User: Fold this.
Amino acid sequence: METKEKRTFFVSLRIKLLVGFTLIFTVVFAVAFYWFYDFSTQLALQRITDDLVATLQGTVKLIDGDQLQALYTKVTPDADGYTTDPRYWEQAKILWSTKQVEPRAGIYTYIQGDQPNELIFVTSGGALNDPRTGAHFMEHWTTENPGPNLSGLKEITLQDSPEGIPTNGCTYGAPGCKVVSYKDDFGRFVSAFAPIKNSKGETVAGLGIDFKADYVDEVRQKILSQVLAAFSVTYITLFILVYLVSGVFTKPIQLLTRAAEKIGEGDYAKGLEYLEGDKKESSLRDEIGTLGRVFEGMVDKVYKREQSLNRQVKELKIEIDQAKRQKQVGDIVESEFFQELHAKAQKMRQQKTKNEDLPDSKKQG
Assistant:
């Protein structure tokens, strides 16, 4: 049964080194990039979280909970969605002042509505803007994810729910509690909430702050662009370095290969010439240089052994030729034709001898 010869492809050692080191570098860089990207993003989110909580805590201390409670229980909004009651504008001014210190903040107070998932905005930091922005006084809002806001009526709460996944938020300072950016009709935000208490220590409303998440997106984009640029330069540099270094390592092997090819063809002089070139290329002794010297010694021994074998073959050939000739002569001598011819020749010699012994008179007769 014939075995099918496996088809193979030649790939040089230099190419293998290039591909191998490039793949290793790519994997290492991908892992390092992911770690750095995630670390920087989390660091940016942590910074925003700290700013959120600091702004919350500082603003809550300035708000008069009794005044805020009286405002939403006793005052109704005008036709324009606001009110002329000075208590509203005192509350709005506190929020507006906070916004001047922290321009990223969208700041407001709220209470729970009577309907499911309903919140009611009481005051807004944008009421003093020109033109006015933010929620109106006692504006009702129904949301699919009121959980973080409602939790914020009890304790400082971070919104940790990405789009489409309602949660109750997480308590600031709890293990694993991290703010998560989300997107709505107004953009991408990170939010935190805190309770507002009256003089009796009772929670009367919640304070909410929304930070634009543009900072996090900017950090991500900067990391992506800068790291990719660094990767491209490093990648090209590594490729060139590996190419040059691989040439240093593979050249002696190439010389040994050429030497082996020439020696295999019987051209020892050319093979030894390549080995001498390998010696000149290698100024420092290493495993490849040692292999070259061992190979050179082996070639020398093989060459001497081949010369000795050639001499022995020639001598053996002469002996074989002589034996053949002797055998051929023996075969001829022992043949029937030769025996008959030999007998005839002997008989002729005998007859000649008899003739020579006769007297001359008889020879003539």
Observations:
- Strands lie at 105-112, 118-124, 139-142, 157-158, 170-171, 182-184, 187-197, 203-212.
- The CA atoms of residues 128 and 230 lie 47 Å apart.
